[in-house]
Give the backbone structure.
Amino acid sequence: MYLLYTILASLVCFFFLKWLKKRRTCTDLKRLDGKTVLITGGSSGIGKETAVALALRGARVVIACRDPSRAEKAVREIKFKSHSLNVTHMELDLANLRCVREFCKTFLQREKRLDILINNAAIPGVLDWTDDSFSMCFGVNHLGHFLLTNLLLPRLKECAPSRVITLTCSNYKYQKLDFQDLNYNLLPFFTYCRSKLANIYFSQELGRIMEGKDVTSYAVHPGFVQSSWTCHYSFLFRMLMQVIMWMFFVPCETGAQTVIYCAVSDEAAKHSGGYFVDCRPATLRPFARDSGVAKKLWEASERLVKPV
């Protein structure tokens, strides 16, 4: 009898966890033939799954990664899964603004189109600094993508209608920006939360600036995903998180669904500057909808990276 109760309890727990992780999938089957997609951090996790899905739809996919060897391996896997040969990679280090500028120069020379830019790459809360002396989270997660997007905007406008999708996280709600200390680098979790809030403000302001120019912008929370972000931490922490992620987090393929939705959906295009969760628009906390703060962050970011 004890064994029966144990089995029943295990089954209940299993199905409860399965229900807890249930997410919508993108059902829009739109093709992307003739379109070019650029995905930062596309060598693993959500970025790679997004690359597979969009290559399957006929898009030319360029993944931008810091590690060329990992990128080459990812390109082979993406080609195999998508049955597409129109996938390539370019080297990009978002922690170095000079590298971002060189990347954009090379990309614009090499690629004649850019229809969808997916700002996917991110680093978790680590107490480190970029080559330009910005905190690693703020520098990579926000400033690197801010400069990248601004330098590629002319091509996005040429290829309009086009889209910019920036991945964020629901953890944004635990912090607010401090304009006296945008380079905050004390507590890793809070540093990460601030960078993800910056992603949301960036996406909103980009949507406002591009209004009427047929370039739309979306901030996407993909859910809590079983990705490789724990590689930055100790072995014991990684082991603990592997158990937690298996129980509560969703696979990368599931996490990519809202990104794919925002890349192809006509319905999503009606909500430029919006925040998306689970393949639909979601409501932000009031402080994260402040257009004045979004504009102020944009202007501060311009001063820091000098895009022109």
Q: What stands out?
A: The chain is about 45% helix and 15% strand.
